Amino acid sequence: MVFKISEICKQYGDNIVLENISLELQGGKVHGILGYNGAGKSTLGKIVGGVIQKDSGHMHLDRMECSNWDVRRAMRSGVFIVDYHSTLLPELTVRENMLYGLNSIKDGSLLSVIRNKKKIVQRLKSELEHYGLECNMDWQISQVSNSMRNILELLRIKLFSPKVVVVDEIDANVNEFYRDRIKKIIRDMADDGVAVLYISHQIQRVMEISDEISAIMDAHLVETVKVADMKPENVIDMMFKITNEHPPKTIVKPQAKILELKHISNNVISDFSLYVREGEIVGVVGLEKEGPASFGELLFSDKYHPKQSGDVLFREKEISLVTPQDAMKAGVIFLDSNVIDQYLFPGQTVRENMLPFAIRVKCRDLETQTKICQSYLDKLSIKAKPEDKIEHISTGHQKKILIAKNILSEGEVFIFANPTDNIDTVSKIDIYNIMNELKMRGRGIILISNDYHEVAGICDVIVVVEDGKVVRKFNNYALHEKELIAWSGQEEERDI
Ligand SMILES: Nc1ncnc2c1ncn2[C@@H]1O[C@H](COP(=O)(O)OP(=O)(O)OP(=O)(O)O)[C@@H](O)[C@H]1O
């Protein structure tokens, strides 16, 4: 089976996103796509999956021309897409989500659909077991971790005997355990004859998972190579001409404690304590395993994780944080990159999305606002104009716009959860530099991340969480990523 993409072009206004892209997705192979933020990777994936339409060019599934290609037609032909934006419905259970939309995928009588439903739930259970995953069919999706949601989406597709699967950045913000499972599922699908289009920024990961790799840059396909013939350095050379190094860690003597969590327990964490001081970056690793938790859900008492005990102190005074808005009032700025959609205002411009309300009220002059916005677009290498609509901006750039917004907010503590997922290598460095700048200005940063390379690179203090408990805290003098991974598996505590 071959899915052939020939001379695909796509443009939005003057912005040429894809120019004459041609490649072949072979059944039984994983084809990786690499490229900077805004390079056009997701656009290509969405065209294959029928989510958006090409301007010109052709696609063939074996001999069949994929004309009038939309999601429904694609799914009925065996072409599926799973991407960063979850399609699972949070208020439905796992079981209900697995069966949702089944009628639109499977043609046939009501009876065969009902028979299929039973089979599908049974097969899902055995797939979960096969991959060593636990997930109750009656859990509501809102109570399932983001990592598990991604896996469920992938397994749901696997159950429909796909021919082509587009996987767009679903493993960027998951920990090693789930990442490994996602890799196995993708490889197993390929072994079953599926053609996989795998989109990611992470060079190493694309190398591990793919049989061949194409690089897209400035709307063009630069090159397609077979992984067996390549070394990682060659791929980096081919595309980025840079190495994946961290900026030097800035040295600042930490001052007064700003935010302190003291012995917090809820249904996910127990006796969880940490603090951040002025001029300090505290890294937290190991939280993702705890289930439905983004750090925000742990920190703020929401409906799923009401605080059972413990205190949150801001400058040594107890405060009550129920929502991120409460925190913002207190000077704690929170960005959970897993759910950037919640922070964006579609229909509004990049400028309106980037500048916090307080700044827009203080400085009503549009020209000044545009200048502030443009300076951050330049600083963070964001490929957008202040007047562009936010929904027309690539995911990675949207995330950088939110980071700029957070930085522009008058906060004392910044909590960033996985800020550099979906961010290309060059822009990651821009973000690390901005964190260092905040630190130099006496702000405190808590960096929740599954990226051990980045945590080991820029954090001053590292907190390791296991089973909802802080099991280790240590000063990070010159720690290497590999040591951090090794330490995460040790029992002993190295206290600061
Ligand atoms: N609906 C749209 N309207 C206008 N421009 C768009 C639209 N969707 C995408 N674009 C533009 O197309 C370009 C490519 O976006 P795309 O999402 O494909 O990039 P990407 O390589 O996947 O980036 P990232 O890694 O940041 O997700 C970007 O410049 C983006 O602003």
Automatic annotation (TrEMBL):
Task: Tell me the GO molecular function terms.
Answer: ATP binding
Q: Where is the signal peptide?
A: none
Superkingdom classification of source: Bacteria
Q: Which Pfam families match?
A: ABC_tran
Show where the ABC transporter domain sits: 3-243, 252-492
Question: Where do the coiled-coil regions begin and end?
Answer: none
Keyword annotations:
ATP-binding, Nucleotide-binding
What protein name is recorded for this chain? ATP-binding cassette domain-containing protein
| Organism, scientific name | Diplocloster modestus
